[in-house]
Write a structure and sequence with these properties.
The protein has one domain: Uncharacterized conserved protein DUF2267 (Globin-like, Orthogonal Bundle). Helices cover 67% and strands 0% of the residues. The protein has 8 helices and no strands.
Length: 126
Amino acid sequence: MEPSEFYTIVRQQANLESAEEAEAAADAVLETFAERLSPGESEEIAERLPDEPAGAIGTDDEGEDFGPEEFRTRVERRAGIDEDLATRATRATVHALEEAAGEAFTDVREQFPAEYDDLFGGASGS
């Protein structure tokens, strides 16, 4: 998958106006996503993404334990967007991750409890 394709999925799914807005929102979601994952899972996802969005995923830190509200708050703060847009951007980015990572996404998604289902927009998981 090309970087432009990844960000186009996010832009279209989240109903964003520009490629720049989609990139900023997706990168904020990916950075937050990686904070919740173990380093091994972060690396696995980063390897399956194009270089541009993959750069937003840190792979050094141990995964933190925080819930969906904190996830959304971190995305809001990082991207400078409101709650509604953070939710739409998160769902869109998770969808793009599923498209890019394929089966590897299932293992990664399992690290997020069912309480994330609403925020992630029904992405397959536990």
